[in-house]
Amino acid sequence: MKVTVIGTGYVGLVSGACLADVGNDVLCLDVDPAKIKILEEGGIPIHEPGLHEIVRRNVEAGRLSFTTDVEKAAKWGVTQFIAVGTPPDEDGSADLKYVIAAARNIGKHMDAYRVIVDKSTVPVGTADKVRAAVAEELAKRGSTTEFSVVSNPEFLKEGAAIEDFMRPDRIVVGAEDPQAIELMRQLYAPFQRNHDRLVFMDVRSAELTKYAANAMLATRISFMNELANLAETLGADIELVRQGIGSDPRIGWHFLYAGCGYGGSCFPKDVKALIRTGSEHGHDLKLLGAVEAANEIQKHVLVDKIVRRFGEDLTGRHFALWGLAFKPNTDDMRDAPSRVIIQELFKRGATVAAYDPVAMQEAERIFGDEPRLSYAGRPKSTLDNADALVIVTEWKEFRSPDFEAIKSRLKQPVMFDGRNMYDPALIRAEGIEYFGIGRG
Ligand SMILES: NC(=O)c1ccc[n+]([C@@H]2O[C@H](COP(=O)([O-])OP(=O)(O)OC[C@H]3O[C@@H](n4cnc5c(N)ncnc54)[C@H](O)[C@@H]3O)[C@@H](O)[C@H]2O)c1
């Protein structure tokens, strides 16, 4: 099938590459010429494990190509996936300007039946807006070409995106038009060979499903974070509590880790957008308001601990920081807790030496020529002259560090572990002063 993917970011590039890998002819469109240039030259503008190889393979096979030409893109695929960003607007609602611009471009140039697939995370009712935008553009040029709008939210996780796309838990499709349903069934058939993962529903339910999933996961994290803070005061250990409840199959193990807050390109903005959708329709989603408030508090928990240990004025203090990305296996720093932590340390007069396996370039882009922030090529190199080590992202390579080096290279052996990576008793036995999250 000929497929167009509009927006070549995390979701668009992964979707395009995986759809090409099963034999489709995919054209990826982006309005950012720099991104398309990198891709045309054989590079990859983001870090996602396995993505480079799959892109290379499909470009070489002639099944995957890139363009900035909106007319060519609209005329290419019978399915047109919209995978552009939906960042939060000032009031927290999802800003749909990129989605609507993409829809208008399709309407301006399409010359045959199209299934327009909303893959971006968009509020309930967006499919209607996309339909109206396309219809308006068609009407302007007197065209009666038929089209259908489908909701197909994406559930991939950055860092495991290829695996998630290739072997999805479920594929949610909100569609009413039988022709569009049949096309979606054909397109996704290669991804569900051992059992049917397609869940068909009406468009509005599909749009809400995506927000429901992210809001539920964010809720679990904030719940555990609040309990962690309480556990600390009560002298209980949240890690033991986690094991005690995770073993209950009604609760399960996932997303029960206490830490220094959730971030990334999805949870913060999707929780905000769902709260906004609720209030626009007269529903005050109190639980999600609390989830968000708890997360804001949690992003400051590590700095609060640092202040309790070193005092409010951190002038002249220097900190080693491990992990900039909002989670491991990605270079994404959108809404990452590291950004809040670094700014809060700067505000109190401190300097920071940071290390991250893949996100340092992204940090340089965000912080620019910030003289208070330096980068090290290896985790150990951040430690020299630092007053303490602060761990913000649970990268695998931090799991078993050289504790001897941590002890000898820091000015004094103090560690703030924002991801509960270590057993406090073991670290203390190493002679390191240890502060975790909710560890009694
Ligand atoms: N990143 C994730 O893990 C993830 C997971 C599931 C769903 N989503 C959702 O998918 C959507 C995309 O997220 P992302 O992280 O891939 O975003 P991204 O910012 O990485 O990529 C979006 C791309 O769209 C391009 N773009 C903007 N307007 C365009 C237009 N009119 N035509 C063509 N290209 C255009 C941008 O230049 C950019 O390259 C969002 O709604 C997001 O909430 C993201």
What features would you describe in this structure?
This protein has three domains: 2-201, 3-Layer(aba) Sandwich (Rossmann fold); 211-297, N-(1-d-carboxylethyl)-l-norvaline Dehydrogenase, domain 2; 299-435, Rossmann fold. The protein has 17 helices and 14 strands. The strands form three sheets. A six-stranded parallel beta sheet has the order 3-2-1-4-5-6, sandwiched between helices. Helices cover 44% and strands 14% of the residues. The model has no long low-confidence stretch (mean pLDDT 97). Helix 4 packs across helix 5 (97-109) and helix 9 packs across helix 12 (286-298). The protein is of the alpha/beta class. The protein has helices at residues 10-21, 33-40, 51-60, 70-76, 97-109, 126-140, 161-166, 178-188, 203-234, 238-246, 267-280, 286-298, 301-310, 337-347, 360-367, 403-409, 424-429; strands at residues 2-6, 25-29, 64-67, 79-82, 114-118, 147-151, 171-174, 198-201, 318-322, 351-355, 373-375, 388-391, 414-417, 433-435. The site of nicotinamide-adenine-dinucleotide has 26 residues, from helix 1 and helix 5.
List keywords for this structure.
3 domains; N-(1-d-carboxylethyl)-l-norvaline Dehydrogenase, domain 2; 6-stranded parallel sheet; Rossmann fold; 17 helices; 440 residues; globular; binds nicotinamide-adenine-dinucleotide; alpha/beta; single chain
Topology:
Elements: E1 2-6, H1 10-21, E2 25-29, H2 33-40, H3 51-60, E3 64-67, H4 70-76, E4 79-82, H5 97-109, E5 114-118, H6 126-140, E6 147-151, H7 161-166, E7 171-174, H8 178-188, E8 198-201, H9 203-234, H10 238-246, H11 267-280, H12 286-298, H13 301-310, E9 318-322, H14 337-347, E10 351-355, H15 360-367, E11 373-375, E12 388-391, H16 403-409, E13 414-417, H17 424-429, E14 433-435
Parallel strand pairs: 1-2, 1-4, 2-3, 4-5, 5-6, 7-8, 9-10, 9-12, 10-11, 12-13, 13-14
Helix pairs in contact: 1-3, 4-5, 5-6, 9-11, 9-12, 11-12
This protein binds nicotinamide-adenine-dinucleotide.
